[in-house]
Design a protein that fits this description.
It is a single chain. With 299 residues, the chain is α/β, with parallel strands linked by helices. The protein has three domains: 81 residues, Winged helix-like DNA-binding domain superfamily/Winged helix DNA-binding domain (Arc Repressor Mutant, subunit A, Orthogonal Bundle), CATH 1.10.10; 105 residues, 3-Layer(aba) Sandwich (D-Maltodextrin-Binding Protein, domain 2); 99 residues, Periplasmic binding protein-like II (D-Maltodextrin-Binding Protein, domain 2, 3-Layer(aba) Sandwich). It has ten helices and eleven strands. Helix 1 packs across helix 2.
Length: 299
């Protein structure tokens, strides 16, 4: 059986993107070349590796078996390169971190800037998505989430708790109806998530405040923050985001507040990759420090 590592690399890209064109974009090669390489690999193993459908390329049973071995080979090659090239102690290569947009906008830039200063040959990418990042398709090397996954072969590490409160602009509060308790929110415009686009139960903030109507909504917490800053109404804001919006004031902080948590999610096999271990340690430590610093500023 004649199998080349480069063909396995292309195979992994097709499996993760579920298309020849997607793999071509990842690898920066022509999709026709990707297709020829997969034909050669299937001839080499003597079995079809993908089932093609209108939805894309899905792994066959034999393809899934090869996927497990190919990922181990990928980790071995990556580890060998890092061991040879990283002897000076600095991190190199590329790492991609997925995160919800609040964390990606207000916390990770500072954390990654420090990581980059200490490791100038490390390329860092932040994937900010208002949904769960798919690690099995290698959308990212590691992901930050607001809840621990209940299923799947993943390793989970709690990073830190964070707090949220109702907030509004001073101008809005100065022109709005009085606010004595949560029942008075019925007389105000409320800003929050689009109800049917809440991808994690931990983000269903307004339900805990007894609010069932959202006057202005977005699937992005950053867009919500800007709506609140523009005087659109009252919404729930991360305490760590408040220092970036000094015109906002907490609303009924003694009556309502939420505590949520961030988790770091990784592939269990990636624990053998020292570069990713060191990046994970830096990200966890940095996020803990940033949340504490910014929340203290917002107190």
């Amino acid at each position: 059986m004649d199998i080349h590592w480069d063909d396995l690399r292309v195979f992994l890209a097709v499996a993760r993107s579920e298309s020849l064109s997607g793999a071509g974009r990842l690898l920066r090669i022509d999709p026709a070349t990707v297709g020829r390489r997969m034909q050669r690999l299937e001839q080499g193993v003597g079995a079809p590796l993908f089932a093609k459908s209108p939805q894309g390329y899905a792994l066959t049973v034999d393809g899934q078996r090869l996927m497990d071995h190919a990922e181990r080979a990928e980790q071995a090659v990556t580890g060998a390169v890092e061991e040879i090239g990283g002897q000076a102690g600095q991190l190199t290569g590329q790492v991609r971190i997925g995160a919800p947009d609040g964390c990606a906008n207000f916390l990770l830039p500072q954390v990654c800037a420090e990581l980059s200063r200490n490791n100038p040959l490390l390329d860092i990418q932040i994937v900010a998505l208002p949904r769960v990042v798919n690690l099995s398709k290698r959308e990212a090397d590691m992901a930050i989430t607001v809840s621990a996954p209940a299923t799947g072969r993943l390793t989970v590490q709690k990073i830190t708790d964070y707090r949220l409160h109702l907030a509004a602009s001073a101008d809005y509060l100065g022109n709005g109806a009085p606010l004595g308790d949560l029942r008075d929110l019925r007389d105000h415009r409320v800003i929050g998530y689009i109800p049917d686009m809440i991808y994690d139960k931990e983000l269903d903030y307004l339900a805990e405040a007894g609010i069932d109507r959202v006057a202005m909504a977005s699937n992005s917490v950053v867009v919500q923050l800007h709506m609140i800053r523009q005087g659109g109404g009252i919404g729930i804001v991360h305490d760590f985001a408040l220092p970036f919006a000094p015109e906002l004031e907490k609303v009924l902080p003694d009556s309502f507040g939420l505590t949520r948590s961030f988790y770091l999610i990784r592939h269990p096999d990636d624990r053998r990759v020292e570069r990713l271990n060191r990046v994970a340690e830096a990200v966890v430590a940095g996020l803990r420090a940033e949340v504490a610093r910014l929340e203290d500023s917002a107190a």
